[in-house]
């Protein structure tokens, strides 16, 4: 509701993130429930990223890889662990972003194809193979939570200057 997931807030199954630039109702306390969104048949014309590990095997696999990465690093080297988790996110969501406008154009096409092929606007995060900053930040938060990295996710124009943008803030030895 507030475009922020704090350090202590975990991304649990049933979490969903709506992105519809034309929908201002979420700012007025009228955010639709996941149940309401699930009853919508076909493409709703906007995207809803859903976390549901029970059916999202790709997310389960990424969390297992994150756990393996954790085993490779001593807790004292959190900076390197953060980098490796970031690399995992980058590798799974289309590689480094060299041109944000080109990535947005690619995502628009990919999003439409995904919603059409899945016959729904509710997209499990694991099915996304090309992601914008909001997808990358959410996936990073999920994986960081799974390995114990203190991570905060903020999104939207109040935090980033752009409604479509999101970032993670990591605590490292009492610093961010």
TrEMBL record:
Residues 2-176 form the EDR1/CTR1/ARMC3-like peptidase-like domain. Pfam families: EDR1_CTR1_ARMC3_pept. InterPro entries: Armadillo-Ser/Thr_Kinase (IPR052441), EDR1/CTR1/ARMC3-like_pept-like (IPR055164). It comes from the Eukaryota. The keyword Repeat applies. The keyword Repeat applies. Keywords: Repeat. This is EDR1/CTR1/ARMC3-like peptidase-like domain-containing protein.
